[in-house]
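Lecture 7 notes: from sequence to structure.

We start with a single chain of 230 residues. Read the sequence below before looking at the structure.
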Amino acid sequence: MTDLLVVEDDDQLRKALVLTLRSRGYSVHAAATGSDALEWVRTTRLDVVVLDLGLPDIDGVRVIGQIRERSGVPIVVLSARRDQSDKVTALDAGADDYLTKPFGIEELLARLRAAARRSGAPVDSGVVRTPDFAVDLGRKRVVATTGDEIHLTPTEWGVLEVLVRAGGLLVPGADLLRDVWGPQFEAQTNYLRVYLAQLRAKLEPDQGKPRYLITAPGLGYRFDASGTGG
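Now the structure, written as tokens:
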């Protein structure tokens, strides 16, 4: 489970974010001040920090800088500050992403998934086992339950690794294309069809009824380690 810290001084928005993110499977901590946020970062292993810049005690940009002095945790800024200079200042201070208010929850979730993947959350460099094969993230290989290695091309591995590291969360197609091929390929959806078909041919017991590499039409893809296909 991905551990998030939501730092927001607006009580109503903070509570709404906590409830929404918990309903989507995240473990969520909350802080209303910069001081509390820094204490969370000091004492807790976090996967992503969601940070408002307009805090009552410490300006959010200073909070970013102080977090960066002690942690590389991804920081997603949520702010009503829309000026380009504010965005540049926050990103230069060490923020990983910047989302302006008001924002759509689906866009926020997509940004969080991308940030979690960059941090390696919620799956570390261990072994993810399924009923038919194991994905060794540290050694970058897939081994069938028979003990035989399943050979993947570098690009096939890249697609699989992104999906496995998402820990069962849905990965939008554009995010998958950007993470594996680069930002200039975000519209090349045909790449995904080709490489998902190749992966299914190697990993799925029945390509016509995928159990592990699940497509959510119009939304994206996810990896189901249970093999239930649900």
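DSSP finds eight helices and eleven strands in the chain. Keep this in mind for problem set 3.
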